[in-house]
Design goal:
single chain; 191 residues; alpha+beta; Barwin-like endoglucanases; 2 domains; 6-stranded mixed beta barrel; two-stranded antiparallel ribbon; 8 strands
Amino acid sequence: MSGKRLAFVLSVMILWTNAAQAETSDASVAIGGSEPAGNRLSISDIMKIGIYPFRNGVATQDNPGISKPESEVSPEEAILARWKEKQLGQWNELPKGKFEINASAYTASTDECGKSDGTTASGLHVVENRTIACPPSYPFGVKVAIEGFGTFRCEDRGGAIKGNRFDIYMRTKAEAFAFGRRYLIAEVLSD
C-alpha cells in the first residue's frame, strides 16, 4: 500500500472512530484541504463507494476511483489503469470501424526485444493470444479484434511498429516465422 493511501486509510479510520464516538453519521473527510466543501465525502459515502476514491491524492465525490477493494485489483489492472490515465487523449483518436493492418509476429527472445524476460513496454508480461505491439498512437490496453485470429490487447511497442503495422506475440520462433507478414482486417473494440 502506498504511503498516501495508507495515510488516507488511517485518516478515515480515525475520523470514523471519532464520528462513531460522537454518534454522528455526517462526519466528512477532505484530504489535502484544497477541495471545495461540496466535494467532501462523508464516512457513509466512503462506505457506499466501497473504497476511497482519489484524484491527485484527494478524495472527491466526482471521482469514484477504483470500484474494487484494493486487495481485489490485480497488478495487471493497476498497470493498465495508470496507462489509461497517462494516455487518455489517445483513446479518442482511435480509428472507427474496420481497417487494414500489416501484421507480423514476434517472440520475447533477446535478439528481437533486447531482453528475454517477457516484459512489454507497458510493464505487463507477454501472453500468447492476447499481446500485440501497436503503433505509438494506440494507447496501452486498447483491444483490437483481428479477423480470423481473435481479440488482442495493445501491450507492447516496437521500433518498426508504426502506421498500420502491428506485431502479434507468439511463444516460439517457429510460430512467428510460419505466420510471416499478412494484411488483415482489424477493428478497435470499445471498453
